[in-house]
Amino acid sequence: MGKTVVIVGGGIIGLATALKLSARWPKHQVIVLEKESAVGAHQSSHNSGVLHAGLYYKPGSYKAQLAVRGIREMKRFCEANSIAHETCGKLVVATNNEESTRLVSLLERGKANGLVGLRRMNAEEMLEIEPHVKGVAALHVPEEGIVDYKAVCEKLSELLRARGVLVQLDTQVLGLARRGKHWIVGTSKEAVTSDLVLNAAGLYCDKINRMSGGGNEAKIIPFRGEYFKLRAERQHLVRHLIYPVPDPVFPFLGVHFTRLVRGGVEAGPNAVLAFAREGYSMSTINPSEFMESLCYPGLWRFLKKHSKMCWVEFRQSLSKALFCRALQKLVPDIRESDLSPGGAGVRAQSMSLDGTLVQDFTFEEQDGILHLLNAPSPGATASLAIGEEVVNRFESQLAV
Fold first, then answer.
1. 242: which residues sit within 8 A by CB, 6+ positions away?
2. How many CB atoms sit inside 10 A of residue 187's CB?
3. Sign, CA torsion 217/288/350/296
4. How far apart are CA 192 and CA 173, in angstroms?
5. Among 15, 79, 98, 287, which residue's Cβ finds the most Cβ atoms within 10 Å?
6. How much is the pTM?
7. Measuring CA to CA, which residue among 65, 62, 139 is closest to residue 105?
8. Cβ contacts of 16 within 8 Å, gap of 6 or more
9. pLDDT on residue 242
10. Beta bridge pairs of residue 86
């Protein structure tokens, strides 16, 4: 008799994991519970649509391993299912000599992670790829690209339903209780009895962890990333992906330029504290969630440590002129009039009690339940590889 596996969260990672589970264990029942009326409603579709190759991440980390495997598998998935994507490449631009020095370690890290075709460029060489960029040196990352993640989620959902996987929408998980060898998953509809549970709830994964009695003290602190779009007649200023060199002192990457697979160019995102876990605008406030963030000691330690950066990010959120000035460090020809309001996303970022942002994907196992407690970028790129990792962890329990 087959077993039942419940996946909490119908985002790209939950769906990708369901696909992997149903492929390896077709006799088991897989159920995806999603509180929204559509799959991939939050992080999975509120992002820049970039295929991340694994350049920035510490060698040997989950992010490095799963992003490198994940981008290649995601490209194959898109090709097999006619999903819009493009390997357009990325330019990481050093605007001064200090950043140019950091490019060396970035190049070494990328090679250690298994990226191919990486090339350091001087100022003249980078202009051949991006004629309007300004810098002293750059790193070309040819494997990176862009994709329609919303379309990926829709295709995953379609494939799952064809395999008999139950993708249950408008179903919020309200409680988890262990009863003997099973988990009783209480929902807004009816309770579900399950042998195994995967917590892939994204912005609410820490709450699901606490529902089940999990002991992880880290908390999801929502940071909103806001974008502008370039006016059509100015999109020629950006041909590929243009990123800054990351500053190791700061926890966020900084604003950059991203081509969109359906056309257009986005500029951003910044990173500001959201007043709700699904706070896609400054005016969206969930008082209880905001107070929960404010009462978390780690947030105040984070704000104290990065007070200057947080103030800069907040001011850029309020001032289009300041946002534009940050973009001009990479492409000086950008003007404030070139920018029109774009979308926004909320990053499900796990923060520790000491105020540090959790850097790697985080898996926590309990008896019969696996929590994915930190899977922001490159989570979407790595989703199929993360799904494989989950299946491997469930192997012994599903094989019985």
1. 90, 91, 93, 130, 133, 256, 257, 330, 331
2. 18
3. negative
4. 10
5. 15
6. 0.96
7. 139
8. 156, 383, 384, 386, 387
9. 98
10. 146
Residue whose entry in the numeric block shows the structure tokens 């947080």: 310
Is 12:383 a contact under the CB 8 Å cutoff?
A: yes
In three-state form (DSSP H/G/I as H, E/B as E, the rest C), the secondary structure along the chain is CCCEEEEECCCHHHHHHHHHHHHHCCCCEEEEECCCCCCCCCCCCCCCCEECCCCCCCCCCHHHHHHHHHHHHHHHHHHHCCCCEECCCEEEEECCHHHHHHHHHHHHHHHHCCCCCCEEEEHHHHHHHCCCCCCCEEEEECCCEEECHHHHHHHHHHHHHHCCCEEECCCCEEEEEEECCEEEEEECCCCEEECEEEECCHHHHHHHHHHCCCCCCCEEEEEEEEEEEECHHHHHHCCCEEEECCCCCCCCCCCEEEECCCCCEEEECCCEECCCCCCCCCCCCCHHHHHHHHCCHHHHHHHHHCHHHHHHHHHHHHCHHHHHHHHHCCCCCCCHHHEEEEEEEEEEEEECCCCCECCCCEEEEECCEEEEEECCCCCCCCHHHHHHHHHHHHHHHHHC
List the pLDDT tens digit at each of the 400 positions of the chain: 689 999 999 999 999 999 999 999 999 999 999 999 999 999 999 999 999 999 999 999 999 999 999 999 999 999 999 999 999 999 999 999 999 999 999 999 999 999 999 999 999 999 999 999 999 999 999 999 999 999 999 999 999 999 999 999 999 999 999 999 999 999 999 999 999 999 999 999 999 999 999 988 999 999 999 999 999 999 999 999 999 999 877 778 889 999 999 999 999 999 999 999 999 999 999 999 999 999 999 999 999 999 999 999 999 999 999 999 999 999 999 999 999 999 999 999 999 999 999 999 999 999 999 999 999 999 999 999 999 999 999 998 988 6
CA distance 76 to 70: 10
Tokens of 68: 């490198």
Omega before 248 cis (within 30°)?
no
Q: Compute the Cα dihedral for 227, 232, 234, 237 and give only its sign.
A: positive
The sign of the CA dihedral 377, 379, 381, 385 is positive
